[in-house]
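For homework, think about our next protein:
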Amino acid sequence: MKKRLLYRLMPLLSLFLLSYPTIAKNTGNGKKVYADYHGVRYTRNHDGMLGRWAMYADTRKSHTGINSLCYNADNLSGDKEPYMNEIASVHYPILGIQSDLDEDYIEYQILSAKTAGIDGFFIEWGFMGHENDVLLKAMQKVAARYDFEIGVNWCDGWLYYDWITKRYPEINTREKKTEHYVRCYQYLIDSVFTGVTAPIVKGYPVFYLFGPGATVEEYKWAYERVRIPVGMNAPVVLRRWADWGRLENNRYIPVTHSEEIDEWIGLGAVPTAWLPARVRIMDAAHPYWDNYAETEDLIEFMKPFRDSIWNNPNPVFRIKSGFVMPGMDNRGCAGWGRGHFFYIPRDRGETYRKMWRFNMANKDSLDMVFIASWSDFTEGHEIAPTRENGIRELETTLYYSSLFKEKIADKRGLLLPERLFYLRKQFALLKDSGIDIEKKQVRMLNDAAKYISKEKYKKADGLLRACTDYVLKMSSRLMRENLNLSEKDLLRDSLDKQGYDVGKSLKLYLPKDLHHKLLKYNYEGYICFEYLDEGDDFIRIYSETNRIPKDKYSVVGSIRKNKTGQWKPVRIRLYKGNIFYKENNPAFYIKGRGYVRNIMLQYQMMHYEND
């Protein structure tokens, strides 16, 4: 147990690798740094689903020879800890998969971003009622506690797709969608561009307009119908400009002028960059991607922004935004199902640093910098910490954001949010295992979070150390009991030549005395088996549940097959909060088409020794 706990609290040890600079007054010059936030990602235990952690896509249009993507995020790979979910990402988040709606995780991300000099997240958002609107509100709630800003990257194309009609059937024509555009815009003005979490630069609310939704004429029509509150400056629109360009004599040539962008400028929008173009075609050195870019292409892509916008005295450009990104590898989605693989090398962090240096060479002309992105693991341009890259991108962000804002970079905070997150989860585990957590300890964690937010890192570190000692002490009082159940313990069905046929639902029964223990004690559990990977349909595992909605929380795991013809292993986490065990009833149902074998349940029960 101590070995596992020490692994989860390893960030504590890494703290001593960071230096302790002398801190002077650190107010800065008012410039801002924002990061795009891509979501929503869910987990079974928090939400009853997985969202963008999972992905299946037909990629036969690709020239790479990769015909499909199949990421079964419920499945944990490896034969020992730390297990890794099979997620739709090249890089694995340092905390494993988490729910974007989990307040502890939101807190971790906001505080991590703050310690790196980021002032706010721009949530990728489409319209009211969409799942990203739920994320927006959840983010605002936590951000309000920590002096953090929450804006939007308005992907208004979502409003013009059939996505909105599926949610609101009456919005079924382009005219009606444009009418709804007005209501969405007003909602942003009233709920996002005002209040304590509003993204404000030089007194102006700011948002990024990704498109490709409203035309210039439709946007103008909609904007004329929104109401700007008295005393509020009109919002500044950072309009995406990401024309492709071309390759000429092996040199990237960017687009330097766009008539459409000129029309947006006429409405007061400020052209702002997005991911640089990838015009180079797959070659022997890049066999996994249809198109790629080299680092020098990125700088050439950015030069038209420097020349025509950043250094342009035109007063229409009220807010000038730089742009940086760390690289790209979209093997997690291949163009979100369009079957196209793109790549921009990270070059061990040098790509990100080069982009920042280009921006900093023009920092006097810029009011803000926009990062793409904080969390787009699926397209592979996240700067959030991962097992492969660690906190490298956070360190780079802190260094250059401090230079941009004329502040002193203080690295002491970078690992504190991770320690805070693990301690909150350890407190929850202890509580669920029957140990009453002292209110004093909870207050210490809350105070540590506030100190991190205010850059009082030494005080936060002291509180987190004290809470770590408390967790180690209380964890030593937990009793643990390991139990492994094999097919002979679980099944009443007979095995045929290929395995167990799940077409008629395979039922797993628990020994009678085990029901009561699992209901009484906390546990960490797994269901393991192998499945024959024939076809491309699903095998799903269900349980009884008391959580609402039951159709979501009754799903223990879902495995999409991918036609390899091989037997593949599965290891799926069992969450106590989702599962209700009924005596004399099956504990689990395996349903689908095809065959499974080598079924096993593993439990480690945890309870306070005084029980």
Observations:
- The CA atoms of residues 149 and 199 lie 5 Å apart.
- DSSP finds 19 helices and 28 strands in the chain.
- Confidence is low (pLDDT under 50) at residues 1-24.
